[in-house]
UniProtKB/TrEMBL annotation:
<protein>
    <recommendedName>
        <fullName>XRE family transcriptional regulator</fullName>
    </recommendedName>
</protein>
<feature type="region of interest" description="Disordered">
    <location>
        <begin position="81"/>
        <end position="114"/>
    </location>
</feature>
Length: 114
């Protein structure tokens, strides 16, 4: 099975998760939910409109506030993956942090005797 973006999964529905959180925490609207989760209101709106995924840090915050397990929270939004992967950009060393590699010519010459 090929790699597909989570948002393309038919079962993925972050609105279900957000609606369940509203009910569980007895909140009136998304603005109250954003205050509880300590995120800007546009974040919730972008998640609802599938323009922003539910990131790991927000998932952890939901866990801290509700006491629900990460697995249960992911199940509520239809995320059935067994691993939660970071984006390609996260965790990669910055170009200036990477060790300098020897130039190809130097590497090729290193094993040769003159």
């Amino acid at each position: 099975m090929g790699h597909h973006a989570l948002s393309s999964q038919e079962s993925y529905n972050p609105n279900h998760l957000l609606d369940m959180l509203l009910g569980k925490m007895q909140l009136k609207n998304d603005a109250a939910l954003s205050r509880m989760l300590e995120v800007a209101p546009p974040v919730i709106s972008k998640i609802r409109h599938h323009r922003l995924p539910v990131g790991a840090s927000l998932l952890i915050r939901m866990h801290e506030v509700t006491g629900m397990s990460i697995r249960d929270l992911r199940d509520l939004m239809g995320d059935r993956r067994t691993k939660y992967r970071l984006s390609d950009a996260q965790g990669r060393p910055k170009p200036e942090d990477r060790p300098q590699q020897a130039a190809p010519q130097e590497t090729a010459d290193a094993g040769m005797s003159h």
